[in-house]
Amino acid sequence: MRILTINPGATSTKIGYVEEEEIVYQETIAHSVEKLQVFDHVQDQLELRLQAVLDQVHEWGLNLKLLDGIGARGGLLPPVQSGAYEINQAMLDYLMYRPRVEHASNLGALLAEKIRAVAGKKTRAFVYDPVTVDEFPPVARISGLKGMERESIGHALNMRAVAREVAENQQRTYEDVTYIVAHLGGGNSISLHHQGRMVDLISDDEGPFSTERTGELPVKQVIAWCYDHSQKEMMTHYRKQGGVLSYLGTNDAREVEKRIAIGDEEASLVYEAMAYQISKGIGSLAPIVAGKVEGIIMTGGLAYSDVLMAAVEKQVAFIAPVYRVPGERELMALAKGVARVLRGEELSHQLTC
Ligand SMILES: Nc1ncnc2c1ncn2[C@@H]1O[C@H](COP(=O)(O)OP(=O)(O)O)[C@@H](O)[C@H]1O
Ligand SMILES: CCCC(=O)OP(=O)(O)O
């Protein structure tokens, strides 16, 4: 199987080429802030990113017509099941004209379809484990105010992939383990995986602050701030200039650790608070399964940090053994998911909205 993977992030597009489950090429194409800031909407970046992907594929010497499949990160679709969704017109229209939230991942399917058109009809294109995978049971949807539902939006692709990996390392299957998975990076998501489903998740709205996002905030103060700031300003504080960045002026955890090492007390306090909130977030999911958690998995860029991971592990190890899977497994998760569908081992879904 020859699979191309496409994973657009805020300032980069990661692409990979996988043959028979081996990564042959991978590249993170950086898009400069200057080039991106001229666009009002994420969707407007499509042609720029497409050209960058095509240039890279050309540099690799890939013949697109030989591709069996393309796997792209799924964007802000309506709530969907886990697994593969074949890219169709309904999905493209939704992501282009009425995504739930503007986010770089919305470009995944749009880019994949453009490349599929070059590759030809026999190449099939999918998104896999979109950020809106929603497997909440009814009880988890109740927010506390009628008319406002809790939402399942987060790093489903990586969290499900690492849960599968840890389960397999223990000669278990994803379908029969109960894990809490914390994806910790520019954005955070913490999710509970039980009997093969992601049954609860806290992320931007309810989770810990991250290196640049606020996470959950005191609601009364948020309401007051809304009277003094525009919606755009509020969204910027919440998703781009919150968290560690708002306190310390950097979103780089390595820089924070350097400051701590030379005695910066504010950096120490903020880092301690991040570990405190991450631990609280992990702990908040354990009662859902009456504490019968079999493992806690820490992943994302922050899982590289020995200091932060030690601080969190100290607080949560009483719940279950802690495993670290630093970085992300998104490239292989996309490639393997698409290959399973193409081999007929897994069914794909169709978006109909
Ligand atoms: N070795 C490391 N030690 C501490 N922090 C790290 C390390 N490597 C990466 N990070 C931090 O991980 C964060 C980025 O996480 P990542 O998951 O790559 O984010 P993104 O959401 O942008 O994909 C940054 O704050 C970075 O400083
Ligand atoms: C939109 C939910 C997933 C998310 O926040 O992804 P990033 O951290 O890559 O922005």
Automatic annotation (TrEMBL):
HAMAP family: Butyrate_kinase. GO terms for biological process: acetate metabolic process. It catalyses: butanoate + ATP = butanoyl phosphate + ADP. It is found in: Cytoplasm. InterPro entries: Aliphatic_acid_kin_short-chain, ATPase_NBD, Butyrate_kin. GO terms for cellular component: cytoplasm. This is Probable butyrate kinase. It comes from Vagococcus allomyrinae. One of its GO terms (molecular function) is butyrate kinase activity. Gene3D superfamilies: 3.30.420.40. It comes from the Bacteria. The keyword Metal-binding does not apply. Keywords: ATP-binding, Cytoplasm, Kinase, Nucleotide-binding, Transferase. The lineage of its organism: Bacteria, Bacillati, Bacillota, Bacilli, Lactobacillales. Belongs to the acetokinase family. CDD domains: ASKHA_NBD_BK (cd24011). It is an enzyme of class 2 (transferase).
